[in-house]
Protein backbone atom coordinates (compact mmCIF):
# COMPACT_ATOMS: atom_id res chain seq x y z
CA UNK A 1 0.00 0.00 0.00
CA UNK A 2 2.84 2.34 0.90
CA UNK A 3 4.55 1.57 -2.38
CA UNK A 4 1.38 2.41 -4.30
CA UNK A 5 1.06 5.72 -2.47
CA UNK A 6 4.68 6.62 -3.10
CA UNK A 7 4.34 5.65 -6.73
CA UNK A 8 1.24 7.79 -7.10
CA UNK A 9 2.93 10.76 -5.51
CA UNK A 10 5.98 10.39 -7.72
CA UNK A 11 3.81 10.21 -10.81
CA UNK A 12 1.95 13.33 -9.77
CA UNK A 13 5.24 15.12 -9.05
CA UNK A 14 6.61 14.15 -12.45
CA UNK A 15 3.39 15.28 -14.12
CA UNK A 16 3.51 18.60 -12.28
CA UNK A 17 7.15 19.05 -13.25
CA UNK A 18 6.19 18.57 -16.88
CA UNK A 19 3.28 20.99 -16.56
CA UNK A 20 5.38 23.81 -15.09
CA UNK A 21 8.26 24.42 -17.45
CA UNK A 22 9.56 27.51 -19.23
CA UNK A 23 7.42 28.21 -22.30
CA UNK A 24 5.12 25.33 -21.42
CA UNK A 25 1.52 25.45 -22.53
CA UNK A 26 -0.58 27.79 -20.33
CA UNK A 27 2.52 28.80 -18.34
CA UNK A 28 3.31 32.44 -17.49
CA UNK A 29 6.60 34.04 -16.51
CA UNK A 30 6.72 36.55 -13.66
CA UNK A 31 9.50 39.04 -12.95
CA UNK A 32 9.71 41.07 -9.72
CA UNK A 33 11.86 44.15 -9.09
CA UNK A 34 11.54 44.36 -5.32
CA UNK A 35 14.79 46.25 -4.70
CA UNK A 36 13.94 48.81 -7.39
CA UNK A 37 10.48 49.39 -5.98
CA UNK A 38 11.22 49.44 -2.24
CA UNK A 39 14.92 50.30 -1.96
CA UNK A 40 16.19 49.80 1.59
CA UNK A 41 12.77 48.47 2.62
CA UNK A 42 12.96 45.60 0.13
CA UNK A 43 12.02 42.17 1.49
CA UNK A 44 13.63 38.84 0.62
CA UNK A 45 11.81 36.50 -1.71
CA UNK A 46 11.43 33.21 0.15
CA UNK A 47 9.02 30.33 0.61
CA UNK A 48 6.57 32.54 2.48
CA UNK A 49 6.42 35.00 -0.40
CA UNK A 50 5.95 32.10 -2.83
CA UNK A 51 3.05 30.85 -0.69
CA UNK A 52 1.51 34.33 -0.74
CA UNK A 53 1.84 34.48 -4.52
CA UNK A 54 0.14 31.10 -4.91
CA UNK A 55 -2.63 32.24 -2.58
CA UNK A 56 -3.18 35.45 -4.55
CA UNK A 57 -3.36 33.56 -7.86
CA UNK A 58 -5.79 31.05 -6.35
CA UNK A 59 -7.83 33.97 -5.00
CA UNK A 60 -7.87 35.58 -8.46
CA UNK A 61 -9.03 32.34 -10.09
CA UNK A 62 -11.79 31.79 -7.53
CA UNK A 63 -12.94 35.39 -7.80
CA UNK A 64 -12.91 35.24 -11.61
CA UNK A 65 -15.24 32.24 -11.57
CA UNK A 66 -17.69 31.89 -8.69
CA UNK A 67 -17.89 28.13 -9.40
CA UNK A 68 -14.11 27.69 -9.32
CA UNK A 69 -12.65 25.41 -6.68
CA UNK A 70 -9.02 26.35 -7.24
CA UNK A 71 -6.78 25.67 -4.22
CA UNK A 72 -3.31 26.95 -3.38
CA UNK A 73 -1.97 23.52 -4.29
CA UNK A 74 -3.23 24.02 -7.85
CA UNK A 75 -0.76 26.86 -8.42
CA UNK A 76 2.66 25.52 -9.38
CA UNK A 77 5.92 27.53 -9.47
CA UNK A 78 9.12 26.51 -11.20
CA UNK A 79 12.49 27.88 -12.32
CA UNK A 80 12.67 30.41 -9.48
CA UNK A 81 15.75 32.65 -9.78
CA UNK A 82 17.42 34.93 -7.27
CA UNK A 83 16.75 38.09 -9.29
CA UNK A 84 13.52 37.29 -8.79
CA UNK A 85 11.74 35.56 -11.66
CA UNK A 86 9.81 32.31 -12.08
CA UNK A 87 7.17 30.51 -14.14
CA UNK A 88 3.77 29.38 -12.89
CA UNK A 89 0.78 27.38 -14.09
CA UNK A 90 -2.65 26.71 -12.62
CA UNK A 91 -3.78 23.07 -12.71
CA UNK A 92 -7.33 21.94 -13.12
CA UNK A 93 -8.70 21.12 -9.65
CA UNK A 94 -10.91 18.34 -10.98
CA UNK A 95 -8.20 16.46 -12.89
CA UNK A 96 -5.02 17.90 -11.32
CA UNK A 97 -2.94 16.67 -14.25
CA UNK A 98 -3.98 19.30 -16.80
CA UNK A 99 -3.63 23.05 -16.70
CA UNK A 100 -6.32 25.72 -16.80
CA UNK A 101 -6.39 27.43 -20.23
CA UNK A 102 -4.08 30.42 -20.34
CA UNK A 103 -6.91 32.74 -21.47
CA UNK A 104 -8.78 32.10 -18.20
CA UNK A 105 -5.66 32.65 -16.08
CA UNK A 106 -4.90 35.87 -17.97
CA UNK A 107 -8.45 37.16 -17.49
CA UNK A 108 -8.35 36.35 -13.76
CA UNK A 109 -4.97 38.08 -13.31
CA UNK A 110 -6.09 41.18 -15.23
CA UNK A 111 -9.28 41.45 -13.18
CA UNK A 112 -7.41 41.24 -9.87
CA UNK A 113 -4.13 42.89 -10.85
CA UNK A 114 -4.42 45.74 -8.34
CA UNK A 115 -5.07 43.30 -5.46
CA UNK A 116 -2.02 41.21 -6.40
CA UNK A 117 0.19 44.30 -6.73
CA UNK A 118 -0.96 45.58 -3.34
CA UNK A 119 -0.17 42.28 -1.64
CA UNK A 120 3.49 42.63 -2.66
CA UNK A 121 3.70 46.44 -2.38
CA UNK A 122 4.54 46.60 -6.10
CA UNK A 123 3.11 48.02 -9.32
CA UNK A 124 2.60 46.86 -12.91
CA UNK A 125 6.16 47.99 -13.69
CA UNK A 126 7.82 46.15 -10.80
CA UNK A 127 5.61 43.04 -10.80
CA UNK A 128 5.46 41.95 -14.42
CA UNK A 129 3.43 39.14 -15.92
CA UNK A 130 5.35 39.00 -19.19
CA UNK A 131 2.57 37.51 -21.33
CA UNK A 132 -0.19 39.51 -19.68
CA UNK A 133 -0.58 43.12 -20.74
CA UNK A 134 -0.69 45.73 -18.02
CA UNK A 135 -4.10 46.85 -16.95
CA UNK A 136 -4.94 50.47 -17.56
CA UNK A 137 -6.21 52.54 -14.66
CA UNK A 138 -9.85 53.53 -15.08
CA UNK A 139 -10.21 57.08 -16.36
CA UNK A 140 -10.66 59.64 -13.64
CA UNK A 141 -14.11 61.19 -13.91
CA UNK A 142 -14.35 64.79 -12.73
CA UNK A 143 -16.76 65.46 -9.87
CA UNK A 144 -18.45 68.12 -12.02
CA UNK A 145 -19.96 66.99 -15.37
CA UNK A 146 -18.10 68.21 -18.45
CA UNK A 147 -21.22 69.77 -19.95
CA UNK A 148 -21.69 71.86 -16.81
CA UNK A 149 -18.09 73.12 -17.00
CA UNK A 150 -18.54 74.09 -20.67
CA UNK A 151 -21.84 75.80 -19.89
CA UNK A 152 -20.22 77.78 -17.07
CA UNK A 153 -17.36 78.93 -19.32
CA UNK A 154 -19.76 80.04 -22.09
CA UNK A 155 -21.97 81.84 -19.57
CA UNK A 156 -18.97 83.69 -18.12
CA UNK A 157 -17.90 84.79 -21.60
CA UNK A 158 -21.40 86.09 -22.34
CA UNK A 159 -21.54 88.03 -19.05
CA UNK A 160 -18.11 89.55 -19.69
CA UNK A 161 -19.19 90.56 -23.21
CA UNK A 162 -22.37 92.22 -21.92
CA UNK A 163 -20.46 94.12 -19.23
CA UNK A 164 -17.91 95.28 -21.82
CA UNK A 165 -20.65 96.53 -24.16
CA UNK A 166 -22.40 98.40 -21.34
CA UNK A 167 -19.16 100.02 -20.20
CA UNK A 168 -18.20 100.96 -23.77
CA UNK A 169 -21.68 102.49 -24.30
CA UNK A 170 -21.40 104.56 -21.13
CA UNK A 171 -17.96 105.81 -22.12
CA UNK A 172 -19.17 106.73 -25.62
CA UNK A 173 -22.20 108.58 -24.22
CA UNK A 174 -19.99 110.53 -21.86
CA UNK A 175 -17.77 111.57 -24.76
CA UNK A 176 -20.79 112.70 -26.81
CA UNK A 177 -22.21 114.70 -23.90
CA UNK A 178 -18.84 116.33 -23.32
CA UNK A 179 -18.52 117.32 -26.99
CA UNK A 180 -22.07 118.72 -27.12
CA UNK A 181 -21.48 120.73 -23.93
CA UNK A 182 -18.27 122.20 -25.33
CA UNK A 183 -20.06 123.09 -28.56
CA UNK A 184 -22.89 124.85 -26.70
CA UNK A 185 -20.43 126.79 -24.56
CA UNK A 186 -18.57 127.90 -27.67
CA UNK A 187 -21.79 129.09 -29.36
CA UNK A 188 -22.84 131.04 -26.27
CA UNK A 189 -19.44 132.69 -26.12
CA UNK A 190 -19.71 133.74 -29.76
CA UNK A 191 -23.14 135.31 -29.12
CA UNK A 192 -22.00 137.54 -26.22
CA UNK A 193 -18.73 138.64 -27.79
CA UNK A 194 -18.14 142.39 -27.15
CA UNK A 195 -15.63 144.48 -29.09
CA UNK A 196 -13.63 147.26 -27.49
CA UNK A 197 -12.86 150.42 -29.45
CA UNK A 198 -10.96 153.35 -27.96
CA UNK A 199 -11.32 151.79 -24.55
CA UNK A 200 -15.14 151.72 -24.81
CA UNK A 201 -16.90 148.34 -25.12
CA UNK A 202 -19.21 148.18 -28.09
CA UNK A 203 -21.80 145.64 -29.01
CA UNK A 204 -21.29 143.69 -32.19
CA UNK A 205 -23.33 145.04 -35.05
CA UNK A 206 -25.83 142.68 -36.44
CA UNK A 207 -25.42 143.23 -40.15
CA UNK A 208 -28.56 141.37 -41.06
CA UNK A 209 -30.96 142.99 -38.65
CA UNK A 210 -29.21 146.40 -38.74
CA UNK A 211 -28.79 148.81 -35.86
CA UNK A 212 -30.36 152.24 -35.19
CA UNK A 213 -28.02 155.02 -34.21
CA UNK A 214 -29.55 157.01 -31.38
CA UNK A 215 -28.02 160.35 -32.52
CA UNK A 216 -29.60 160.22 -35.92
CA UNK A 217 -32.88 159.02 -34.49
CA UNK A 218 -33.07 162.12 -32.29
CA UNK A 219 -32.34 164.41 -35.25
CA UNK A 220 -35.07 162.80 -37.27
CA UNK A 221 -37.61 163.50 -34.56
CA UNK A 222 -36.45 167.16 -34.29
CA UNK A 223 -36.88 167.86 -37.95
CA UNK A 224 -40.12 166.04 -38.44
CA UNK A 225 -42.35 167.81 -40.91
CA UNK A 226 -45.52 169.41 -39.74
UniProtKB/TrEMBL annotation:
It is found in: Cell membrane. One of its GO terms (cellular component) is plasma membrane. Pfam families: Collectrin. Residues 1-17 form the signal peptide. Keywords: Cell membrane, Glycoprotein, Membrane, Phosphoprotein, Signal, Transmembrane, Transmembrane helix. The chain crosses the membrane at residues 146-170. It is a single-pass type I membrane protein. PROSITE patterns: COLLECTRIN_LIKE. One of its GO terms (biological process) is positive regulation of amino acid transport. Residues 24-226 form the Collectrin-like domain. InterPro entries: Collectrin, Collectrin_dom. PANTHER family: COLLECTRIN. This is TMM27 protein. The gene is Tmem27.
Amino acid sequence: MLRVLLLTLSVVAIAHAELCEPDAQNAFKVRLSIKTALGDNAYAWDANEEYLFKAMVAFAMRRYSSKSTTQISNVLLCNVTDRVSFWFVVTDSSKNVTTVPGSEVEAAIRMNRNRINSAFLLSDKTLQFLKITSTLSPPVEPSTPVWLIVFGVVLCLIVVGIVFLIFAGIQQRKKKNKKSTERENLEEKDEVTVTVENGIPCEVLDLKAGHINGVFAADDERFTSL
